[in-house]
Amino acid sequence: MEYLFLYGTLLVDGVPDEVVVVLKSLRRIGPAHVRGRLYDLGEYPGAIVAPASKTLIRGEIFELPATPATLKSLDEYEEFDPLNEEQSLFVRRRVKATLQDGPQVDCWMYVYNDDPGTAPLLADGTYSKTKAA
């Protein structure tokens, strides 16, 4: 089984049409968190994973269908090019996410691939469109 941790625009209302079908193919496992920092970059959030961080990135774990087309579609949406990570907006990384009831799950996660600069930190680790600029 492959899992994906989502924390941003793919969890809020108004998901772009290009990924609605893909998201409907995912099976929700439950609320979870990853240690790190979540920044408000305006139109979307950017997560920086930091296992020693005192702050959390809050989101949801989903089970991925067996088809590789799902991750390929999400890679395109997140502007991740596995053959050119340096130029990618986000990179897909393996992380350990902790479910609300305690167990850890190895998941894929899209991590921001740049310095967030002066972007506001979302201290509670939760992104919503209402917080976006």
Can you describe what's shown?
The protein has 133 residues and is mostly beta strands. It has a single domain, classed as Hypothetical upf0131 protein ytfp (Roll). Helices cover 13% and strands 38% of the residues. It has helices spanning 17-24, 69-77; strands at residues 3-6, 27-40, 45-49, 56-63, 90-99, 104-112. It starts with a strand and ends in a 21-residue tail after the last strand. The model has no long low-confidence stretch (mean pLDDT 92).
Short structural summary:
The chain is globular. The protein is mainly beta and 133 residues long.
The DSSP helix count reads 2
* Name given to the CATH architecture: Roll
Beta strands, count = 6
Structural class: mainly beta
CATH fold-type name = Hypothetical upf0131 protein ytfp
Order of helices and strands: EHEEEHEE
How much beta, percentage-wise?
A: 35-45%
Round the Cα radius of gyration to an integer and report it: 14 Å
Number of domains in the coordinates? 1
Instruction: Based on Cα principal axes, name the global outline.
Output: globular
Largest β-sheet summary: 5 strands, mixed, barrel
CATH-assigned homologous superfamily? Gamma-glutamyl cyclotransferase-like
**Distance, first to last CA:** 36 Å
Mean of pLDDT? 92
Poorly predicted tracts of residues: none
Task: Please give the CATH class.
Answer: Alpha Beta
Strand order of the largest sheet: 1-4-2-5-6
Query: Share of helix among residues?
Result: 10-25%
